[in-house]
Amino acid sequence: MTNLDHTLAKGEENGRVTLVQHLSEVALLAEKVAQHLGLNVSIARKGAILHDIGKASSIFQNTLKKNFQRPPGFLFRHELASLFFISILNEEEKYPVIDMIVAHHKSIYKDAGGKGLLDLDENEPEVFEKHIKGFDVWSKNALSILEHFNIKTKPISVDQAKESFYEVVDYCQSKKYGYSQWKGVLIAADHLASAMSGYIKPLEQRLFVVPDLSYYHSRQSAIYPLSLISTDDKRKHTLVTAPTGAGKTDFLIRRCTGRMFYTLPFQASINAMYERIKGDLNNTDADVRLQHAASSIKLENGTVIEKILQRHIGASVKVLTPHQMASLVFGTKGYEAMIADIKGSDIILDEIHTYSETTQAIVLKIVEILCNIGCRVHIGTATMPSVLYNRLVEILGGADTIYEVKLSDKVLDTFNRHIVHKADSMESLSNVIDEAIQQNQKILLVCNQVKRAQSLFNNLSERYPHVGKMLVHSRFKRGVRSQLESDLRNIYNNSTEACLVVSTQVVEVSLDISFDLMVTECAPVDALIQRFGRINRKRSNETIGKYKPIYVLAPPSEKTEALPYGLEVLQRTYEALPNGNLMKERLAQSMIDTVYPSIEFVNIDLNAVFKEGKWMIKELWHNSKSALLETLDIDSVACIDEADKELYDTSPYEEQAKMEIPVSYRSVGYRGLDKSDNGSKPFVIPSKAYDKDLGFLVDFAKPEFYNVSLRFI
Question: Residues in domain HD Cas3-type (predicted)?
């Protein structure tokens, strides 16, 4: 047996993992995923053991040696070499196992780097010859490994290997439209095994555990009217419209009967929800996870590739943003693994109204796909244009399939809590802020752009040096931002002295804070209503009927200043708001419909792989993603401070995540910045581009600001 320990899956530089260990870990996980999906567990095990058996090749083993340099024209794809062994399978096993092997790294066709099986068959005349070298010798070792796993083997000649290889080429050429469940099983298992190597056995017991949500069924109070409404309804999906503080989160969770995926609009807001659910389910065996990095994006032959991080398949509860499900819409690498994870689960889409136009189109497409793969979809919103509401009803299959819940006007009146004032500028409110500080009030100031929030924070720091203050937005190091949110909830929120908190949209959702005064830039009416919910939020018999002030600044005159929103929507919103009067919850819907009499739904079908109820991508293909990714101003990539690079490169995944700063691809992708080869392959920014109080400073994220003393010595 000792000779098998010399055959490696990963070399010394990547932690030295033997092939036997890697295959046994992937097999264990693949069985678990297949069992969850109702697939044949024995086939899943065989596919997992065979998927990397091509790594036994002496050519591959040579590439793991230290300082190995690939010679010009070098070509070896270990998954293609694994195909030489399919003749040991019976007919029932063969095609599922091929699905598990052939495309677990590359799309079989139109792969970004041209390395898919059909790409190579088309463009590389000697593809088989390059992979078969030394087969007579190394195949014996490969067969020994298979026998170690009690797989019945037989000697395989070069001619038999060639026949198997071209049988797979023919099979791949005949692939139909759809997605391969078997490919999803393998990718899900392989990614988790690679990320958690050595810890698979204890982890395996926790996979696909349905959470015990009885805690949420035991809480009732007239203060939270939704807690008094039964969730016992046979209709599959849910649509709840209710103001902030009505008990929406608990209601949506009570509607879940299986594993739960809880989605929120902003990366920052998912942290708070994760902490909340984790705390609530602390005494159960539920495995609650936070999907941290949206994606790992790397440049490969000049094309942008998005590889969804699938490290955490099988969680009982996963908290994430819809952007982290976007692979379903675009068929990007790993999308079949996401389907394997999410199929048949309960999906909560909270605050669904807050998305910008293109993102909204992606979310609607996600809902279509979720319905197609048997998910139960539960949607919560404080506000939503009727046009969008009706579109969702249509996608979910009509009113007969949806449990729709709204509060009566009488109950809505108890949620009136704000007097809204219009203001020309921040400067015109100096006296209002001065007076609030004298009265020891907690003041929340909200900007729509990170840069403006940073600038406002600097100005307030100069003007009020002795008042406690903080800045919070999405572009801090994740570990720091988590601490900032904790400070916001536990210190500033409970302060008995005056304090100033400057923020961006990240406060709109799921941050349970209740301040005394808000000054906010104008945002679309639905987002503003959500934003207002951070003021006078604490709901008790004493606070009902008490009102607090909100000042909304006039919209800018330039379209670029209005971003990420459309200027016309801001102008219509500002016009519709009361001035010096009570904001009435019962009138919120008509106000929203005045601002959004119609919605021009963005058509993303050119980019999407699912249209009119059908998959428009062939099995075993996946797309490289570029155009749409670049247009979205979402935090889709990570960067790290150059001063953290050495520590980042040697830290485990959880510690790496704390050092990462989420940013949009377009803010760093084309500036010639260095990248780390580790973790989620973040861009490396100059230390000058990150400030502990202000976060990411985009103007300094350029190579000329690198610290020379930290460069290679």
Answer: 12-192
- Residue, of 491 and 13, whose pLDDT is higher: 491
Least Cα distance to 23 among 201, 204, 189, 195 occurs for 189
* Cα distance between residue 689 and residue 674, in whole Å: 14
- Give the domain-ending residue among 391, 410, 429: 410
pLDDT of residue 267: 65
Burial label for 678, CB within 10 Å (0-12, 13-18, 19+), is middle
Map 111-148 to HEC letters: CCCCCCHHHHHHHCCCHHHHHHCCHHHHHHHHHHHHHH
Q: Is the pLDDT of residue 173 over 50?
A: yes
Q: What's the pLDDT at 296?
A: 35
Span 521-546, average pLDDT? 88
Q: Do the domain assignments include residue 623? A: no
Q: How far is CA 313 from CA 291, 383, 417, 598, in A?
A: 10, 32, 42, 39
Residue 712 has pLDDT above 70, yes or no: no
Q: Give the domain range for residue 688.
A: 636-710
Distance CA 667, CA 669 (A): 6
pTM of this structure: 0.85
**Quick one: which of 52, 22, 53, 17 has its CA closest to 143?**
53
Q: What is the pLDDT of residue 322?
A: 85
Residue 236 and residue 369 in one domain? yes
How many percent of the chain have pLDDT more than 90?
Answer: 71
Same domain for 688 and 664: yes
Tell me whether residue 660 is in a domain.
yes
| Sign of CA pseudo-dihedral 588, 251, 361, 298 | positive
Q: Which residue blocks in 295-422 are alpha helix, DSSP H?
A: 327-330, 335-342, 357-372, 386-395, 409-413
Q: Distance (Å, rounded) from C-alpha 110 to C-alpha 627?
A: 16
* 645, part of any domain: yes
363 shares a domain with 283: yes
Same-domain pairing of 122 and 253: no
Length of the chain in terms of residues written: 713
Same domain, 197 and 86: yes
Residue 273 lies inside a defined structural domain of this protein: yes
Residue 389 has a pLDDT of: 93
DSSP per-residue codes, 66-108: TT--PPTT----HHHHHGGGGGGS-HHHHHHHHHHHHTSSS-S
d(Cα 256, Cα 380) in Å, to the nearest integer?
13
DSSP 155-193: ---HHHHHHHHHHHHHHHHT--BS--HHHHHHHHHHHHH
Using CA atoms, how far apart are residues 690 and 448, in angstroms rounded to an integer? 20
Q: How many domains does the chain have?
A: 4
**Mean pLDDT, rounded, for 503-528:** 89
pLDDT exceeding 70 applies to what percent of the chain?
94
Residues 6 or more apart whose CB falls under 8 angstroms from that of 702 comprise: 671, 672, 673, 686, 689
Angle (CA) 469-473-474 rounded to 5° is 150
d(C-alpha 474, C-alpha 316), whole Å = 26
Q: Is the model's pLDDT at 307 over the cut of 90? A: no
In this predicted structure, the answer to whether residue 305 has a pLDDT above a threshold of 50 is no
Give the whole-angstrom CA distance, residue 540 versus residue 454.
35
Rounded Cα–Cα distance for residues 512 and 489 (Å)? 7
